[in-house]
Structure formats: C-alpha cells, structure tokens
Amino acid sequence: MVKSIIYTVTAILLCLALFIGVEFYLNEQFGEFHDTLETLYKKVENETANREDAYAVRQMWTDKKSKLHIFIPHNDISYVDYWLSEACGFIYEKEYGLALANIEVLKEITKNLPGGYTLKLENIF
What we know:
The chain is mainly α. It is elongated, with a radius of gyration of 19 Å.
C-alpha cells in the first residue's frame, strides 16, 4: 500500500515537473520569436525592412516550429505560418502598412499562444 502511494505521488510530481518545464520552454521560444518580430516591426515602421529581413524571421520561425510541433497543435503553428507568409509578401512588395498589420497580429499570437498551454485550471477543464 505504501509503495503504491509513493509511486503515485512520484508520478504526479514527475508530470508536474514535465508540464512546468514545457511551459518555460514554450514561453522562452515564443519570447525570442516575439522579440524578433518587434525588431522586424520597427524596421517595417521605418520602411527600412527588406526581403532578407523578412526571410530571416521566417527562417528563425522554421527552426523553432520544427521543435514546437511536439507541444503545440499543427493548426496553431499553421496559423503563425499564414500570417508570417503574408507579412513577408507585403514586405517584398513594399506594402509596409499591410505588413505592419500582419506583424501586429503575429505579435499578439506569439504573446497569447503559449498561455493556452500553461498549467492553469481554465486550460484543464
């Protein structure tokens, strides 16, 4: 009886540690990407952004999303892909106003998306 209680408590603690570790990892990954989007936003705002800047951000996202697929549903990742591709296209066409709008959406997504996967009561039920 005592063994089973110890095993159960150990399993619960390991699960909690895993969930907390994933939460920190997601916040770190999306925080880095959000900072990169902030830099791109400033360049677009100043109309100094070029195709290489946009594709550098896209490459960074490609590297991150290959690891994030483990923790986040593909639909959420596709959503970021969609908005980022649109922003890159607008930057390429020098449609800076439209690019700013898309980057603003991306910044909100990267700020809010990790919160949907945190260990909170509202996310469990």
